[in-house]
Amino acid sequence: MTAPDFTTLIADDWRDYALIDSGAGRKLERFGPYTLVRPEPLALWAPRLDEAEWARADAVFSAHSEDDESGRWRMARPLPESWAMQWDGLSFRARTTPFRHLAVFPEHSVHWRFALARARGDGETLNLFGYTGLASLACARAGGRVTHVDASKRAIAFARENQEAAGLREAPIRWIVDDAHAFVKREIRRGRRYQGIILDPPKYGRGPKGETWRIEEKLSELLCDCGALLDHDGRDRFLILTVYAVRLTPLALAQAAREALTLPGDWTFGEMALPHARDERLLPTAIFARWRSP
Ligand SMILES: C[S@@+](CC[C@H](N)C(=O)[O-])C[C@H]1O[C@@H](n2cnc3c(N)ncnc32)[C@H](O)[C@@H]1O
User: Fold this and answer.
1) In this structure, are residues 269 and 250 in contact, taking their beta carbons and an 8 Å threshold?
2) Alpha carbon 55 to chain centroid distance?
3) Is residue 136 within 6 Å of ligand 1 at its C-beta?
4) Structural domain containing residue 196
5) Which residue in 48, 55, 174, 183 has a CA-CA distance of 20 to 30 Å to 281?
6) Residue 250's domain is classified under what CATH number?
7) Does residue 58 belong to any structural domain of this protein?
8) In which band, very low, low, confident or very high, does the pLDDT at 65 lie, cut at 50, 70 and 90?
């Protein structure tokens, strides 16, 4: 197999979000009107701004332990439970969560733009592990039909709040609480086909009936099954896979994806990154594999 050319996709299309600085294992960001500090193990370099600027943040997250996503926020001033943000005219709600994130992953805008450009026709997009629903809403706003699957009722409730915020109450979105892989298998048995599939699986997760998801064990089989669910000959078909699990590399993902999905088409592999607002640095965030029909 020849080594793929890896691409860095840069989410540089935000007004309501900015990566202000990073370094020494932390990042300073703006989400709407609020600035926040979070741990960032990939920020191996030195911060560029003075400590005084970091100290002005509205909230700081401390993890319970180094490998733990969960932790607590220390607020310098009271923050609302959620607040309005926009991406490219799509309105949604951001909020602090006990799992260090803000219920929006800004680096994903590179995939929303790719998906919405294809999801306009009569086809349907399947968003697996869909959480905040922003990918689903971007596709629906472009005029596409969407099936959104997440194991967590609470996550679906957040996504539906975003649907309200976006003014897309009437949009053709099916919100489904289910285990992603069990749902995919059921859709194959029903003979359903999707124009596009978006997957952002966590490293480890549980379905609503306790089904266990472990990325290293299950990703390859899930991708094969996604291949069976993709329309075999429609226009503008696509698959977008994002992985944050630290032990995987772009090359490992590229090889697994190429082996699992053998439909003719073009693959792009690489990393997603956030640009710093005040200097030329890029912060890597996740790795991805993206397929589109010829
Ligand atoms: C990394 S988040 C996805 C974030 C999403 N890309 C976004 O922009 O909002 C992972 C999501 O997977 C869900 N999840 C975990 N295990 C699952 C499973 N077995 N089946 C379906 N969803 C699952 C979690 O509830 C969580 O919402």
Assistant:
1) yes
2) 29
3) no
4) 102-292
5) 55
6) 3.40.50.150
7) yes
8) confident
